[in-house]
Design brief:
This protein has 2 domains: 39 residues, no CATH class; 155 residues, Serine Threonine Protein Phosphatase 5, Tetratricopeptide repeat. It is 65% helix and 3% strand. The termini are far apart. The chain contains 7 helices and 3 strands, in the order E-E-E-H-H-H-H-H-H-H. The longest helix is centred in the middle third of the chain and has 23 residues.
């Protein structure tokens, strides 16, 4: 559903597939209820964030801010939360983290385009799941050596861009330290491709 007159806060909302309509007051009630439900989720509750996304998929637009916030929170949990360290994530959860990064990045590219800190962080978060998933699939012979190399090249491009962005931050900041780590990782990747 979209507002019939987007610049009018009192505009009715109408489904773009049928004639169903809601008043702006009804839309506000629904949004407020969902905001309260979202706010009640603890900072580290992966299951509730995932449940929130699943239970409201038919109600909210895929790019709704509550979905984007939930995806951002999940991205920060998968790989960083002690219950979900990156090296122990299953292939399905690695794919989930990559998907979360891609979805948040697609929104960030519209709202905050360019070489932004948000983009640098998301690219940083996305590179390791791609590496671990590719290694897992290659070791299990689910992908060819050629496809493995393509994934590693894709990761190198992601790491290069993340490094370019995060290296703009002060060297002694958290992001500056990550940039130094990415720089070392780039050297390892370049060394890897020399002998691959």
């Amino acid at each position: 559903m979209l507002a019939m007159k987007p610049l009018d806060p009192d505009s009715d909302w109408k489904c773009d597939h049928c004639s169903y309509r809601l008043t702006s007051a009804d839309v506000d009630k629904i949004t407020n209820k969902l905001q309260k439900e979202y706010d009640a989720i603890g900072d580290n509750d992966v299951e509730l964030f995932e449940s929130f996304l699943k239970s409201h998929i038919s109600l909210l637009h895929p790019n709704h801010y509550l979905f984007t916030n939930a995806r951002h929170s999940l991205n920060e949990l998968y790989g960083y939360d002690p219950r979900y360290p990156i090296e122990t994530l299953s292939p399905a959860l690695l794919e989930r983290k990559i998907d979360l990064c891609q979805k948040v990045l697609s929104i960030a590219d519209v709202i905050e385009p360019g070489l932004t800190l948000t983009r640098g962080n998301i690219l940083y978060d996305m590179h390791l799941p791609i590496v671990f998933l590719a290694k897992n699939q290659f070791e299990n012979q689910d992908i060819s050596e050629e496809n493995f190399k393509k994934r590693m090249l894709q990761t190198q491009v992601i790491v290069e861009e993340s490094y370019r962005i995060l290296s703009l931050e002060p060297a002694d900041s958290d992001k500056g330290v990550i940039a130094k780590t990415l720089q070392r990782e780039l050297r390892r990747m370049q060394h890897f491709f020399k002998f691959y």
